[in-house]
């Protein structure tokens, strides 16, 4: 068929083309098998691993309670939302007592508290069939503050705070508190009765005698309103969490308190080591155990304890020791 030298060349070219074509077919067949095997492997991985949609958390975690704990929980919620954008975490500020009322009525999943739960609140939860987990989250130093314009107070004793704030007190002017103070009316500001800060001050300073309730004192559940009240009066005095003082240190002066060992000012160190006595206190969140069965609530509680130590300083609080956070984390498991 192919004659001569030219024919041989053509024959050789055709044979080479056939070899290349056969190799290509073989490679395609092998590629097909590889793709099928690879596809099967890929499908197996996709089947065994959760899809992105399945891995996402969603839902709502309602939280309410202490205005003191609010900045901590708000910070935790904001950071949590960066990782879990489909979970809504509204945080209310009804005071510690108001938060426990909602908590024991199963209206919220988590209660912020600036004091431990009271016996009557624990009974209300028990009667409603609500079991809970108490988690310590940070330290706070309840701070007594006056206006920046106050130029006569360098410190106060616990006894003097009793003269000012205790129910039944007849003290009206600063001179009634200390002879060297001016004869000017005292203007007092206090958190409301639903506040854990109110309860703690009453217990730690007034030995549960109660806070006076007359024309000389104004109450508010809003710490910012207390800041405005004290800062706007040269003869004003009030108290609230350390974080709110830190945030408003440009217009307030913190008062060192003498609890028997000399005047101590609240700082990160004095709050953490307990030397700022008797006004150093732990802060808490309470989580409904039934709610912890919801994956988004459990994940948030774990996230809170794992991260709040780092966040605490950013919002004016003092972190617990690392070993304490490990203890709290174990409770969630």
TrEMBL record:
Does Signal appear among the keywords?
Answer: yes
What range(s) does the PBP domain occupy? 51-306
Residues of the signal peptide: 1-22
Which keywords fit this entry according to its UniProt record? Cell membrane, Lipoprotein, Membrane, Palmitate, Phosphate transport, Signal, Transport
Instruction: Report the subcellular localization.
Output: Cell membrane
Q: What is this entry's stated membrane topology?
A: Lipid-anchor
* Cell membrane recorded as keyword: yes
Write down the superkingdom of origin.
Answer: Bacteria
Q: Pfam families this protein is in? A: PBP_like_2
Q: Which Gene3D superfamilies match?
A: Periplasmic binding protein-like II
InterPro entries membership: PBP_domain, Phos-bd, Phosphate_ABC_transporter
Task: Write down the SUPFAM superfamilies for this protein, in alphabetical order.
Answer: Periplasmic binding protein-like II (SSF53850)
What does the UniProt function comment say about this protein? Answer: Part of the ABC transporter complex PstSACB involved in phosphate import. Involved in the system for phosphate transport across the cytoplasmic membrane.
Report quaternary structure and partners. The complex is composed of two ATP-binding proteins (PstB), two transmembrane proteins (PstC and PstA) and a solute-binding protein (PstS).
Q: Which protein family is it in?
A: Belongs to the PstS family.
Q: What name does the UniProt record give this protein?
A: Phosphate-binding protein
